[in-house]
């Protein structure tokens, strides 16, 4: 595996980019070595600047559910580009994508488009506070909801990978109304609600993806619904990652969670920068220009992103790939467990829809604490050998892997062989 050009670009990038990257996870800090610079992608495969090609399970951290370079998405984007990049005015595309999104979510009468998942969540938090006239938010340790100050505590994603407890520059006052509960632990939620009458909402990733893929228990979801009703607090479902990845809608529906406000991103933009938040009419009436909760954005609902989103969701609905995703995820789980057993490596696999993770631990991973029992050194060895074998997964233990509709039998065969080689390397590393 050649990396000369990536090394040159990394060195060059250090001069003007912070760490030569624009998002910390891309720096490969938790797996060691220099980051790989990508050049192009097509369908299920991605190519770096040294012309190494990989089966892609990163998929831009989720958005590329149709694979790379989908012809209909490209055509839609080109058509939109020819008409103009951005107008600072309303367009028909916003209405069309809004209808598709609202139709997919029974609880959503209206939606507001923004430019990122972070924007969607910080707006949803503000909306919950405006609607309830309360200040506190309950979040779960290990769940990452973007980098807004109030939620950048006990977060997953890069913070978990880098073992950072939070972020410098976040004032204590910014997080004083953020209460931390334990994922899959009702008692920790109930305690906060019993002790405070100032809780506006509980925010949750219905399927966590930023401490690795972690799925809530049925009892936990059922209990969460009861607590929200009892204490009259809203539930915010952060579906930025999981939205449209387990069925044509939100993971929360399949799990039985009663969401009041839903946050979206990634898939709904088809690779373009898009976020969204939506809720029933009564709640969305609070948002300006109808109500007093202010939120705005120069590029919100821009025609290029709307075109990509419309094309992506239209193709996704037509293809209905979800049964296939479940089957493929089960195949990959079997590959991981079989190879781990063969090479005497302790591995736990979690999956939901088209999201999957291998944790290098024998513990059942149900929350942030058990996720952190994973051996990150073993993961790093596993990651690099997969890469050498032509398979790309996120360069961090605590990031979900994603499936696309373009995976082929050939890709899966290569993945199986790569996983076997990588588990062998982990075993060798342990024994040396």
From TrEMBL:
Pathway in which this enzyme or protein is active: Porphyrin-containing compound metabolism; protoporphyrin-IX biosynthesis; 5-aminolevulinate from L-glutamyl-tRNA(Glu): step 2/2
UniProt GO MF annotations: glutamate-1-semialdehyde 2,1-aminomutase activity; pyridoxal phosphate binding; transaminase activity
Alphabetically ordered keywords of this record: Cytoplasm, Isomerase, Porphyrin biosynthesis, Pyridoxal phosphate
Record InterPro entries: 4pyrrol_synth_GluAld_NH2Trfase (IPR004639), Aminotrans_3 (IPR005814), Aminotrans_3_PPA_site (IPR049704), PyrdxlP-dep_Trfase (IPR015424), PyrdxlP-dep_Trfase_major (IPR015421), PyrdxlP-dep_Trfase_small (IPR015422)
EC number: 5.4.3.8
PROSITE patterns: AA_TRANSFER_CLASS_3
Keyword Isomerase: yes
Pfam family, one: Aminotran_3
Name of the protein this chain belongs to: Glutamate-1-semialdehyde 2,1-aminomutase
Organism (species): Putridiphycobacter roseus
């Amino acid at each position: 595996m050649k990396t000369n050009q990536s090394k040159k670009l990394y060195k060059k990038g250090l001069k003007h980019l912070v760490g030569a990257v624009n998002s910390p996870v891309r720096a490969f800090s938790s797996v060691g070595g220099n980051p790989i610079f990508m050049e192009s992608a097509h369908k299920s495969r991605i190519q770096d600047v040294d012309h190494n090609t990989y089966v892609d399970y990163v998929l831009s951290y989720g958005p590329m559910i149709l694979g790379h370079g989908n012809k209909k998405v490209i055509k839609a984007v080109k058509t939109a580009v020819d008409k103009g990049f951005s107008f600072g005015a309303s367009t028909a595309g916003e209405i069309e994508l809004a209808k598709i999104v609202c139709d997919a979510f029974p609880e959503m009468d209206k939606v507001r488009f923004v430019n990122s998942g972070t924007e969607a969540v910080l707006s949803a938090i503000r909306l919950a506070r405006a609607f309830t006239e309360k200040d506190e938010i309950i979040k779960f340790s290990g769940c990452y909801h973007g980098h807004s100050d109030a939620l950048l505590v006990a977060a997953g994603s890069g913070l978990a990978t880098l073992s950072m407890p939070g972020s410098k520059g976040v004032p204590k006052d910014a997080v004083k109304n953020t209460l931390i509960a334990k994922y899959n632990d009702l008692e920790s939620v109930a305690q906060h609600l019993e002790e405070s009458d100032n809780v506006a909402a509980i925010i949750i990733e219905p399927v966590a993806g930023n401490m690795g893929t972690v799925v809530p228990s049925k009892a936990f979801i059922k209990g969460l619904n009861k607590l929200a009703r009892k204490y009259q607090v809203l539930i915010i479902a952060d579906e930025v990652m999981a939205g449209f990845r387990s069925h044509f809608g939100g993971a929360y529906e399949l799990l039985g969670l009663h969401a009041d406000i839903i946050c979206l991103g990634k898939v709904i933009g088809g690779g373009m920068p898009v976020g969204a938040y939506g809720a029933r009419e009564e709640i969305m009436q609070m948002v300006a220009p109808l109500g007093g909760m202010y939120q705005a954005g120069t590029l919100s609902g821009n025609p290029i992103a709307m075109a990509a989103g419309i094309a992506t969701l239209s193709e996704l609905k037509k293809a209905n790939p979800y049964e296939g995703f479940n089957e493929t995820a089960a195949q990959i789980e079997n590959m991981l467990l079989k190879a781990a057993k063969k090479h005497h490596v302790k591995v736990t696999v979690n999956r939901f829809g088209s999201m999957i993770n291998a944790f290098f631990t024998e513990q059942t991973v149900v929350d942030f604490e058990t996720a952190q029992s994973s051996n990150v050194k073993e993961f790093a060895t596993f990651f690099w050998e997969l890469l050498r074998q032509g398979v790309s997964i996120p360069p961090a233990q605590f990031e979900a892997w994603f499936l696309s509709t373009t995976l082929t039998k050939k890709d899966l065969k290569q993945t199986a062989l790569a996983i076997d080689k990588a588990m062998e390397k982990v075993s060798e590393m342990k024994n040396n």
